[in-house]
């Protein structure tokens, strides 16, 4: 073999090795969380460990609220969200058709968070976990809705209230101080249009509505059984 073809051969070999190593790390073995119903796909093991803890908290919280059907979920922690209507502002999403949940990795989420200054909060691991909780709560809620007409606002209500309820006291107080709007007064105010116009305000207003003693898990039950149909989906 002459010198130039040999160098070319070595270059190609090196590129192939880089691609193999990159794919090897990007598509690490999926891990089943201790919960058993959730499989996490991620490049980094530390992302998987954090995700499993967040997922277990979500299951426990919603089970206590009466959402206790076993729900199988595939959670993909990715560096880019594909096929979402507005990937620039979105940190994760749950696909009701494929039942797959995608969430940006910690690193990708941090860049997006700083760029869009979501909620005016400092990005950290706890906040990232809270978005995993949000998406997993979507998946669990969706599996429980008895009416197909119970659409976006009901799912977002359960996802955001679970997310905020499971924050540490310090993080929750920080959020509630930054977004000081009062809670929704009644279910007619909880609409998909409101959510689309201001998801952050929707989140906090939903949480303040949820924590009133007449609402809480009893309101979840009304949504699940279709006793309350949220405005915007009727
Ligand atoms: Zn959501």
CATH architecture of the largest domain: 3-Layer(aba) Sandwich
Measured on Cα atoms, how large is the radius of gyration? 21 Å
Number of strands: 5
Which percent band covers the strand fraction? 5-15%
- Specify the structural class: alpha/beta
Integer count of domains: 2
Bound molecules: zinc ion
Distance between the termini: 74 Å
- Please bin the fraction of helical residues: 40-55%
- Shape type: globular
What is the oligomer described by this structure? Answer: single chain
CATH class wording of the largest domain: Alpha Beta
Order of helices and strands: HEEHEEEHHHHHHH
Q: State the helix count.
A: 9
- Describe the sheet with the most strands: 5 strands, mixed
Low-confidence segments, ≥5 residues, pLDDT <50? 18-26
Describe the protein in words.
By secondary structure, the protein is of the alpha/beta class. It folds into 2 domains: 28-144, 3-Layer(aba) Sandwich (Glutaredoxin), CATH 3.40.30; 148-234, no CATH class. It contains 9 helices and 5 strands. A 5-stranded mixed beta sheet has the order 1-2-3-5-4. α2 links the parallel β2 and β3 (73-78). The model is unreliable at 18-26 (pLDDT under 50).
């Amino acid at each position: 073999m002459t010198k130039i073809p040999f160098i070319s051969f070595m270059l190609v070999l090196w590129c192939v090795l880089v691609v193999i190593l990159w794919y090897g790390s990007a598509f690490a073995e999926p891990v089943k969380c201790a919960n058993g119903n959730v499989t996490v796909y991620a490049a980094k093991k530390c992302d998987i460990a954090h995700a499993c803890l967040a997922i277990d908290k979500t299951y426990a919280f919603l089970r206590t609220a009466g959402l206790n059907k076993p729900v199988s979920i595939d959670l993909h922690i990715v560096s880019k969200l594909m096929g979402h209507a507005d990937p620039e502002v979105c940190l994760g999403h749950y696909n009701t058709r494929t039942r797959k949940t995608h969430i940006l990795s910690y690193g990708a989420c941090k860049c997006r968070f700083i760029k869009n200054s979501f909620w005016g909060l400092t990005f950290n691991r706890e906040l990232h976990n809270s978005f995993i909780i949000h998406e997993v709560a979507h998946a669990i809620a969706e599996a429980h809705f008895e009416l197909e007409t119970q659409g976006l606002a009901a799912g977002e209500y359960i996802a955001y209230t679970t997310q905020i309820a499971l924050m540490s006291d310090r993080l929750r107080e920080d959020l509630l101080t930054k977004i000081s709007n009062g809670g929704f007064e009644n279910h007619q105010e909880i609409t998909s249009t409101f959510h689309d116009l201001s998801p952050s305000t929707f989140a906090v207003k939903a949480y303040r509505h949820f924590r009133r003693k007449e609402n809480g898990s009893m309101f979840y039950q009304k949504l699940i059984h279709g006793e309350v149909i949220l405005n915007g989906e009727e």
